[in-house]
Amino acid sequence: MKSAVVQLPGLNRDRDMIAALTKISGKAPVTIWQTETEIPDVDLIVIPGGFSYGDYLRCGAIAARMPVMQAIKAKAEAGVKVLGVCNGFQILLEAGLLPGALMRNASLKFVCREIKLEVINADTDFTRAYQAGQIIRCPVAHHDGNYFADADTLKAIEDNGQVLFRYAEGTNPNGSMNDIAGVMNKAGNVLGMMPHPENLIEAAHGGSDGRGLFASALDVIAA
Amino acid sequence: MINARVTVTLKNGVLDPQGKAIEGALGALGFDGIGHVRQGKVFDLQIETADRAKAEADLKAMCEKLLANTVIENYSISLS
What we know:
The structure holds two protein chains of two kinds.
Chain A: E1 3-7, H1 14-25, E2 30-33, E3 44-47, H2 61-64, H3 67-77, E4 81-85, H4 87-94, E5 101-103, E6 111-119, E7 135-142, E8 146-148, H5 151-159, E9 163-167, E10 180-184, E11 190-193, H6 211-217
Parallel strand pairs in A: 1-2, 1-3, 3-4, 4-11
Antiparallel strand pairs in A: 5-8, 6-7, 6-9, 9-10, 10-11
Chain B: E1 2-10, H1 17-28, E2 41-47, H2 52-67, E3 73-79
Antiparallel strand pairs in B: 1-2, 1-3
C-alpha cells in the first residue's frame, strides 16, 4: 500500500508520521507540499499534527482553504483513505470532511501526556487490527481538542458507528463531548483523531499500541 | 471605500471555556453579578467599492467560507 504525508508550513509532526509509515509499511511515503494540486496515486493520505499557518483565525482554518485541500477532498470523495492526526483532525473538520468542531480544551491548558483510548468500532479500515472494547495507550499533545457537535450530529455519528475512539478510564484530557477522541466520516474512509498513534509504534517509544492503526490503514499484518 | 465590521460569536449552547475563565477573573476583581460572559472576534475590513449591496454579499460569502466556522459560530456584518 502506498501512502502520502501532507507537509504544510507550521506542521511539525510530519517527520514522526513519515518514520511511522516507513517502519510499518516498509515503504517511505511520498510527501505532498502545500502548493500541490495533483495528488499522487496512493491508498492513504495522512495529514500530521502541528500548528499549520500558526493556527491563525482557528486551528486548521487556513490550511483547510488551501488548494491542496481541495485536491485531497477530491481524493477522499473518490474513496482514498485519509487520516488526520491532531492538527490534521482540525484541518479535516474545517474542510468539512468530518462533522463537528474542535474547541479550546476545557481546562484552557495545553495538555501533553499519555491517555487511554477505548476502541469503539473495530470494524473499519482504520481499526481492524484492534478489538472493540480494547483499551490502548496513546500520547496526546494539544490545546484545542475539545470535540463539539450539535445534538443531531452527535446522535448521527454515534448511531452510525463513526466514533472509533473514546478517551477511557477518566483520561479525557480536553472536555470532548461523549469522550470522543476519533471520528470517521460516514463513508468510512476519512478518520480524524486528536491522539498521536505515530508516537507509540515501537519499543523505543515504550510501547506499540499505536501500530495497529497504521497496520489496519496500510493493510499490513500488525507486528 | 466601504468600512465594514464583522463580529463572530459562539452559538448558544457551545461551551466557551475562555468566556468562563474571563467571567471568573471578573468576579475575582470584585465585579459582582456578572454572568454569561462569551468571548468572540471582531474583524475590521476596508472594501474598495461603492456598491453596498455587493460589499454585503461578499462579506457574507467571506464569513461562510472563512471568517466564521458556522458549526460553532454566528456572524453579523455592519457597514459604515
